[in-house]
Design a protein that fits this description.
Length: about 300
């Protein structure tokens, strides 16, 4: 991996966490008008600069990938369960239902299927928000990337649209890491991932959508569409993040997903130092361990170097 690609991989990891922390205080809030966009890290339900469950689950996935490649879904489910038992600040409804079903004698697949039956149409964004470590771990193996992107989603979000959305996003990152232009990366990923027609149509239409017509809910389709909109209608990492987090509602997750894409597009050097300096969070498995920007840089290096 050359220095440019490594900078983009680091940008993906740091960018995802930055987007999460930027969006956190705007979560469940209404969209801000263009004249009143929030530009800085501010406090909300957590202190300013703190990342949320979006990044915490990504860390669990990264640890699992560092231990097992190809991904072992049983190991990943155990890591998610340990995180849940440690009492994270927040957790998505579908993830909670799956982990509530996961107990001795119940496999991850049985738990995932049982939770899905409770709310069969729950195509939430809980697997797309955490998927980026797969893209870094498989930066040189596109087929492996697609397979493990789908598999990590299946552990908690087994609906076809959720699994396809995860594969699509990581395919976009793959293309960006390898130097593709943003629009070309999206088009190539759409051609490679098995994206259901409704999701495909939403992604293709994203750059033509008006900001005021973008619902920013917890559904995977909205998160992916809005992240693609942010990536393709702006010209910098900062502009992409500012535009999407100010859509409000599920602001931390759309910030996470846009951050991973824009970080891969523009690289670590393009991320504003003022945001990087404030990023922090506790890994709930050991609340004394705080993650900051250098930790994410090292994590990206470990994933791409398979160390």
């Amino acid at each position: 991996m050359d220095d440019v690609m490594l900078d983009r991989a680091r940008g993906c990891a740091v960018g995802a966490a930055i987007g999460d922390a930027l969006g956190m205080p705007l979560e469940f809030k209404p969209a801000r008008p263009p004249a009143r966009l929030e530009l800085e890290m501010i406090g909300g339900r957590l202190p300013a600069g703190t990342f949320t469950d979006d990044t915490e689950m990504a860390l669990a996935l990264a640890e699992s990938l560092l231990a097992y490649r190809p991904l072992d879904p049983a190991d990943l489910a155990v890591r998610f369960a340990e995180w849940y038992c440690a009492g994270p600040e927040d957790i998505g409804g579908q993830v909670r239902r799956v982990l509530d079903h996961l107990r001795p004698g119940v496999t991850w697949k049985e738990a995932s299927s049982a939770a899905q039956r409770i709310w069969p149409a729950a195509a939430g964004n809980g697997s797309v928000m955490r998927c980026w470590p797969v893209a870094l771990a498989y930066h040189d193996d596109f087929e492996g990337l697609l397979a493990d992107s789908v598999l990590q989603s299946e552990v908690t979000h087994p609906l076809p649209e959720c699994m396809a959305a995860s594969a699509f996003l990581n395919a976009v990152v793959f293309e960006l890491l390898h130097g593709a232009a943003r629009q070309q990366a999206v088009e190539t990923a759409l051609g490679a991932a098995r994206v259901p027609e409704a999701l495909r149509a939403a992604i293709e239409a994203a750059p033509r959508r008006r900001r005021e017509d973008l619902p920013n809910t917890g559904w995977a389709r909205h998160t992916v569409t809005n992240a693609v909109w942010g990536l393709l209608t702006t010209g910098s990492f900062e502009d992409a993040l500012v535009q999407v987090i100010n859509l409000g509602d599920d602001a931390d997750t759309v910030g996470t997903v846009t951050g991973m894409l824009a970080g891969a597009a523009y690289g670590l050097a393009a991320i504003p130092p003022r945001w990087r300096a404030e990023l922090h969070g506790a890994w709930p498995i050991n609340s004394r361990t705080f993650w900051r920007d250098p930790d994410f840089v090292r994590l990206a290096d470990r994933l791409v170097m398979r160390a």
